[in-house]
Design goal:
This protein is α/β, with parallel strands linked by helices. It is built from 13 helices and 15 strands. Its EC number is 2.6.1.2.
Length: 408
Amino acid sequence: MRPILKSNKLDDVCYEIRGPALEQARQMEDDGHKIIKLNIGNLAVFGFDPPDEIMQDMIRNMHGAAGYTDSKGMFAPRKAVMHYTQQKKIAGVKIDDIYLGNGASELIVMAMQGLLNNGDEVLVPAPDYPLWTAAVSLAGGAPVHYVCDEGAGWMPDIADMRKKITPNTRAIVVINPNNPTGALYPREVLLDIIELARQHSLIIYADEIYDKVLYDGHQHDSIASLADDVLFVTLNGLSKNYRSCGYRAGWMVISGEKRHAKDYIEGLNMLASMRLCANAPGQFAIQTALGGYQSINDLVGPGGRLLKQRDLAHKLLTDIPGVSCVKPKAALYMFPRLDPAMYPIADDQQFICELLGEEKVLLVQGTGFNWHAPDHFRLVFLPNSDDLTDACGRIARFLDGYRRRHAR
C-alpha cells in the first residue's frame, strides 16, 4: 500500500513545547522514571487551583450547558468581556465585536485562517509563543520574525520590525506580557508599534493572556487602548490569570478601525459559525471570573507564591556559571541565556534531550520559540520552592558536567 502522508500544509508547522523531548519524557515515564516537567505552563498540575466560585458557577449551570450556544458565545460572558475592555480603556467595543473560543489558541488559528492568502506575511516576535508562527504557516502565510532585544530587556526592536515590512505584510503580532521572556512592554514601545501599523495599514494582533500575571507593582497597558485608527484584534482568556487551562475559555475582541474590515469580520463570523460554538461549561466561568475576587493578585504580590518562585528560580539559574537571565516582569517563564563560550551547543534540541536523559528535567529549547541561536531555553517556574530548587540543582549539575566535557 502507498504510505499515507500528512498534508504538506504542515511542512512548516511545529510546536516544540509538546515536541520530541516530551515524547522522550513519556517513554521514560513508561519505564518508571519520574520527570520534572518545566516545559509547559499547566498550572493545575503544580497545585494552582482555579477560584472556587468559578467551579461552583460551572457546576450550578451544567444543566444549561448541553446545547449549542450562539456561534460567538453566550450573551452574559460576552457582556462581561465587554466590561473588561472598558476597564482596560479599549474604546468602542460592542457585544458583536467579541468572540468566545475554546481557549485563545483556537481563536488565534481562526484569526489567521480568516485573514491570510498564500504568501501573505505576518510579523511575529522572536522569540515567540510558537502557536503564532504555526498558525500563520498553517493558513498559508509566511511568518516573518522581528527581533526582541535581550540587551534591552527583550523589547521589540522597532528598527528591525520596520525593515521587515514589505508590500505583502498584513499584520503585526504583539505578545505582551511576553511568553517566553516575561517582558512587559512600556507605553512608548506600544505607541511605536502602533505608528508602524498606522503607516503601513497593518492589523495588530495583541496576545494579552498574561495581563494580570504582573510582578513588582508593574501595570499592563492594552495596546488597543492607545489608538482608534488602527484595527486591533485582542486575545485573552481564563487559562493563566484564573488558573483554568483545561476549561478552554478564551475570547477575541475586535476594536479600533473596523469600517474597512467588514469583509474580514464577515470571514471571522463564518469561521465562528463553522465550529458551531465554544464549549458551554467554560463560557459559564467567564462572567464569574472577570467580576469576582482577583486572587491572582495574591499570588503575584508581596509574599505571593508566584513572586517567591520567580525570585528563587532567577537566583538559582543566574548563580550557575555562564548563565544569564533577564528577570521577568510578568508571566510564568524565564528564558535564560547560556554563554556560547562555555556551552558550545550546536543542536539545542539534542541538548535538551541530553539534560532530560541525565537529570530527568524537561525544558524547551530556545529555537522551539523561533529564537535564531541554540543558546537559550525556557523554564516554567511553577513547581513549589522545594521542587524548583531540586530542578534547578539538577540543571546546574548537568551544566557543570557539560562545561567539563566541552572545556576548550
